[in-house]
Prior knowledge:
Blueprint: H1 12-35, H2 43-84
Amino acid sequence: MSTAGPNPNIGLTTISRTVASLAVGVVHTLERAVVGEARMRTARGNAWEAVCADRARADRRAELDRLVAELATTRAAARGERARQPVS
């Protein structure tokens, strides 16, 4: 004989997971409707954006290094000019 009682496996965490899953589904569907299929964010798209951001950061760092080296060279040349001038 079996009793049709409440399922003992359903608890607060199960309900929370279900609500979270439904919320993700709603957000995903809403994003498709608003943004469009072609502009959906994907893992591949996110990875490519990260690669592009890393490259841009490296380019900016290289440009800054070049400017610092140029400034150091200019300052060294200016110090050399002052050292060569006779003291009056």
